[in-house]
Write a structure and sequence with these properties.
- The protein has one domain: Amino acid/polyamine transporter I.
- It is 77% helix and 0% strand.
- The protein has helices spanning 11-22, 25-37, 44-69, 73-83, 89-121, 132-138, 142-161, 164-191, 196-204, 214-227, 234-239, 248-276, 286-297, 302-336, 340-359, 362-391, 394-402, 413-436.
- The protein starts with 10 loop residues before the first helix and ends with a helix.
- It is built from 18 helices and no strands.
- The protein is mainly alpha-helical.
- The chain binds tryptophan.
- Residues 21-22, 24-27, 103, 226-227, 229, 231, 233-234, 320, 323-324, 377 line the site of tryptophan (TRP).
């Protein structure tokens, strides 16, 4: 029951956990690539607009809904719908939990690559590899792929098994500040490389024509949703561990802002470095795993910087994966009334078994990542919006969000949540479906 539910100890611990969830592979791996693909600085216009208008609103909704009900999506949707006489809330709430389980699987596979890279980067011989493209392909060799996936899930399982305050909050309090420090040092390193200027030029010369294409706007919103972890899942669960004196609007604003700072920082680390060594920035997914090691190979102090970089990526990835898997663990505990440790063990084992086909084949992996992130995830965000902004009376929602806030949102916010949030996210679901087919 919600009264003996664990709570975050402090507001700053909660915010760091949410920043940990938000800042992940989406920022370090996808954002710089999308920026390159969709017009450089021009992409920032739709992106920032969506993060602050739609992202912050969605976060307030998810934190508020979780805090009001003290439950993950299944219990939370049931609570809201039951009051209006609908009995299918719980069924509806299983959707985000199942989709988040799919995310757990592929996110673990990619996080396992990062764990492996950190291990390898400890040894100075890491950078002696003649060809990182070939090394990337080695990630898919059966036995090592399975072992590293197991190692990754074991680490996450051990953290989650310790619970919300000792596990999630405790770890994020250490690794989030460390991640931002790493990004800062890396920005300085990249900016001082000879030839880095071309990278800045590229970042600062926007291709405005991209803004006339609907796909740019659809990708910007999809990226904003993914990056702040919006889909009626992780942020509802983290919200359910909140005490009533936490400031929800302020925490939402901070989560989105730190997330944006991290994304921009990642672009400032990667793009100038890549240009300094004359590599194509739109290189796609291998950017972090192939291009960056090539950069470090040629960089003075490359050994130290590569280790630091991959530790940073690891911190970003595991703090996000924790929030993703926690949704499934919480759903499992809620549904089957099992202990936390038992639920963690089951979820990690299932993710391990189902992750194997993706860990050994990049095509399988890309297929599921695209399908889940483009089609299935935004639907989860829309559902959460519909439940809390349309089915729950909006004035009640706003009052709930404002409890404990020094910066309460006014009545002006209601149409933004009710019409703009739901309308724009629905539009994007439809646009992405139209544009991404095939
Ligand atoms: N925001 C994370 C990233 O940028 C990914 C993530 C964490 C996520 N939790 C989530 C995505 C929940 C969707 C739902 O990498």
């Amino acid at each position: 029951m919600s009264n003996n539910r664990e709570h975050f100890n402090t507001q700053i611990g909660f915010i760091l956990a949410c920043v940990g969830s938000a800042v992940g592979l989406g920022n370090l791996w996808l954002f710089p690539w999308r920026l390159g693909q969709y017009g450089g600085a021009a992409f920032l216009i739709p992106y920032l607009l969506f993060v602050y208008l739609i992202g912050v609103t969605g976060l307030m909704g998810e934190y508020g809904l979780g805090r009001m009900t003290g439950k993950g999506p299944m219990g939370a949707y049931d609570h809201v719908l039951r009051k209006r006489g609908f009995l299918f809330g719980r069924t509806m709430g299983t959707y985000p939990v199942i989709i988040t389980f799919l995310i757990t699987i592929f996110y673990s596979v990619v996080t396992a690559w990062v764990v492996r890279y950190v291990w390898e980067a400890i040894f100075p011989s890491f950078l002696d590899k003649p060809d990182f493209g070939a090394h990337f392909n080695e990630l898919f060799e059966t036995s090592p792929a399975i072992i590293w996936l197991g190692v990754c899930l074991l680490i996450i399982g051990l953290i989650l098994g310790r619970g919300v305050t000792k596990g999630i909050e405790g770890i994020n309090r250490i690794i989030m500040p460390a991640l931002f420090l790493v990004l800062l040092i890396m920005i300085v390193r990249s900016a001082t490389l000879p030839g880095a200027g071309k990278g800045f030029e590229y970042l600062l010369s926007p291709d405005w024509s991209q803004l006339t294409k609907p796909i740019t706007w659809a990708m910007a919103l999809g990226q904003a949703f993914f990056s702040v972890s919006l889909m009626g899942a992780a942020m509802v669960v983290y919200g359910s561990y909140l005490s009533r004196d936490t400031d929800v609007p302020y925490s939402s604003f901070l989560t989105a802002s730190f997330d944006t700072v991290a994304a921009l920082a990642a672009a400032l680390v990667i793009i100038p470095a890549v240009f300094a060594f004359g590599i194509d920035p739109a290189a796609g997914p291998p950017l972090v795993f192939v291009t960056m090691p090539e950069v470090f190979k040629n960089m003075p102090g490359g050994y130290i910087f590569s280790m630091m970089f991959f530790v940073g990526v690891l911190f970003a990835a595991i703090s996000s994966l924790m929030s993703i898997m926690e949704v499934v663990v919480d759903g499992f505990m809620d549904q089957f009334n099992t202990s936390r440790k038992f639920s963690v063990a089951i979820v990690a084992t299932l993710a391990f078994i189902l992750g194997i086909p993706l860990a050994v084949d990049l095509d399988n992996l890309s297929l599921i990542v695209d399908f889940v992130s483009i089609y299935l995830m935004p639907i989860g965000a829309v559902l959460a919006g519909v439940v809390f902004f349309a089915i729950n009376p909006i004035s009640e929602t706003r009052n709930e969000i404002n409890v404990g806030s020094k910066y309460p949102v006014g009545k002006w916010w209601e149409p933004i949540a009710r019409y703009i949030f739901i309308g724009v996210s629905l539009l994007v679901v439809i646009l992405q479906m139209l544009y991404q087919v095939g």
